[in-house]
Amino acid sequence: MARFLVAPDSFKGTFTAAQVAAAIGRGLESSGAPPPDLCPVADGGEGTLAVLLTALGGTTGGATVAGPLGDPVVAGFALIEDGGTAIVEVAGASGLGLVPDSRVGPQAAWDASTRGTGELIVAAARAGAEVILVAAGGSATTDGGAGAVAAIEAAGGLGGAALVVLCDVRTPFEEAARVFAPQKGADAACVERLSARLDEVAARLPRDPRGVPLAGAAGGLAGGLWAAFGAHLEGGAAFVLDAVGFDERLQAADALVVGEGRLDGQTGQGKIVGELAARAAAAGMPCHAIVGQDGTDDAGRGALGLAGVSEATSLAAIEAAAVALARAVRGA
Length: 332
What we know:
Elements: E1 4-8, H1 17-30, E2 37-38, H2 48-56, E3 59-66, E4 72-80, E5 85-89, H3 90-94, H4 106-111, H5 115-126, E6 131-135, H6 146-154, E7 162-167, H7 176-180, H8 188-204, H9 217-229, E8 232-235, H10 236-243, H11 246-251, E9 255-263, H12 272-282, E10 287-294, H13 298-304, E11 308-311, H14 315-331
Helix pairs in contact: 1-14, 5-6
């Protein structure tokens, strides 16, 4: 029988990657498949810290920082590699999930700041980290990193610590508002204002982040850290997959099952399912997806190289979709 590698991302705001992987695993095993290899993944967005901490081991720390709208929040970071490397998640300090539903809209999209992310980066540096990985997805912000840069500068810098930004999108700095701000509550007029502000931020930075691939991640935070502190920008999906030993685990499987909250036009633009499907295709392995919502058409699914897509919005439904998948693969 087919040996499955199960590598889902989180269903943002609903289920963690580990919860989704476990549900898929239960469904596959209940259908008689061999115990699958559960490999929760992330793309640099929400859940990256948990995935890397589980894969690499380490300890956790935290700090009280400014949330996206200025309210104090307690945000965590992880220390791995004997404390020499820290992982900071933007979603935990400046995330859209920290904005109350009642406040999501153009004003919040304009006001949201990455200052708390900067404060969390400083806390990680003061904990002794020499390299700080910044998982950049899931932000409420489009401030070009201005808040984070100001917070780091106000703290006197990072004491020589190096920054690596794990980007969940390939979007350049100047496109951040147009592409992502509507998801954060911005209307058309607000998007125009945010785009103009990004240009103003770029003009004040030590070097211009406009035109730089990946720099638009987290509403331009990636570009701001690149310009102000020489941060290295890296695709989050590829980084995480390498960290969890995905390619080696793929070689031991016969089929891959992936998942995320929504499959859409951005999936192939740095998102984890696009990266997973590409690696499966290169290995000549079928890739099946279980997602919360499928916003693609047949052409889009074909372009991603997916053998099939199932929708499921609860853990029970995810488990049932895995049962159906195992039966379909067995009968093929």
